[in-house]
Write a structure and sequence with these properties.
Layout: E1 7-10, H1 16-27, E2 31-36, H2 41-54, E3 58-62, H3 68-78, E4 83-86, H4 101-129, E5 132-137, H5 150-169, E6 175-182, H6 188-191, H7 194-201, H8 205-213, H9 225-235, E7 247-250
Helix pairs in contact: 1-9, 3-4, 4-5, 7-8
The chain binds nicotinamide-adenine-dinucleotide.
Nicotinamide-adenine-dinucleotide binds next to helix 1, helix 4 and helix 6.
């Protein structure tokens, strides 16, 4: 389905999954708003490249998703929001009794609270437009847990719960809310975990990828940002009109185990 004339805001989209989703949604015809907390020339250049290659309007708006007022300001500044993709996220790994409080607070704020603020600001715009899609990029960790990821698992389970509530509150309107739950996708967020894991297990890079990371992913393959973008595009299609309040796993079988 063409999303021509629609505008999609994707939080945390100057890298990884968010950027992949922005490209895929732009290829479907929607104008896109990219975001992160930096304001560098290369951030704006990403939007310019998408606009040039796909012919849609693309903008980059700086907003720190750890701050509620900036989350809301992002939506207000964009002025229109037909598709909201809550994607910004960070990770920190530590046993719970050693988990740094500032890391806990940052993960809960960026990975969960930001979706509350952006959704609250975007729903009135969707209602006015008579159509809307909220897509939250949760995680396999929104459905299951791993040790040492307490904050991330708590935030992602929270996002899945919030998604269901938003779906119920909009159930009789032409708006849907769903969460996508990826398994491992090779992005900077995952790359950053490789060196520590290599040291911890005294393994090489490929061994860590196959034996530690993809050990949980039965397909033994990373999901790709293009596959995530395609899933968001599907949720924006007419075929997905009755899909609301649920999760779609893109995890190579992880949560089937
Ligand atoms: P990434 O590090 O490549 O991207 C994270 C994005 O969030 C970046 O654009 C970053 O700039 C942005 N961001 C971080 N802090 C921010 C802040 N304070 N304000 C605004 N933006 C901020 O990582 P990714 O793997 O692409 O992760 C994207 C999302 O997908 C996250 O929510 C993550 O939890 C989720 N996810 C990733 C994987 C994976 O294997 N990569 C698996 C499941 C879920």
């Amino acid at each position: 389905m063409s999303l021509k004339g629609k505008t999609a805001i994707i939080t945390g989209s100057n890298s990884g999954i968010g950027l992949g989703v922005a490209w895929e949604i732009a290829r479907s015809g929607a104008n896109v708003v990219l975001n992160s907390f930096t304001d560098r020339d290369e951030d704006h250049a990403l939007a310019a490249e998408i606009a040039k290659e796909t012919g849609v309007e693309a903008r980059y708006i700086k907003a720190d998703m750890s701050k509620g007022d900036e989350c809301r300001a992002l939506i207000e500044q964009a002025g229109v929001c037909d598709v909201l993709v809550n994607n910004a996220g960070i990770q920190h790994v530590a046993p719970i009794d050693e988990f740094p409080v500032d890391k806990w607070d940052a993960i809960i704020a960026i990975n969960m609270n930001s979706a509350f603020h952006t959704t609250a600001a975007a729903l009135p715009m969707m209602r006015k437009a008579g159509w809307g899609r909220v897509v939250n990029i949760a995680s396999a960790h929104g459905l299951t847990a791993s040790p040492f990821k307490a904050a991330y698992v708590a935030a992602k389970h929270g996002v899945v719960g919030m998604t269901k509530t938003v779906a119920l509150e909009t159930a009789e309107e032409p708006i849907t809310a769903n969460a996508i739950c990826p398994g491992y996708v090779l992005t900077p967020l995952v790359e950053a975990q490789i060196p520590d894991t290599m040291e911890k297990y005294n393994m090489g890079r490929e061994e860590v990828i196959k034996k530690v990371m993809l050990e949980r992913q039965p397909s033994r393959e990373f999901a790709t940002v293009e596959q995530l973008g395609g899933t968001v595009a599907f949720l924006c299609s007419d075929a997905a009109k009755q899909i609301t309040g649920t999760t779609i796993s893109v995890d190579g079988g992880w949560t089937a185990l």
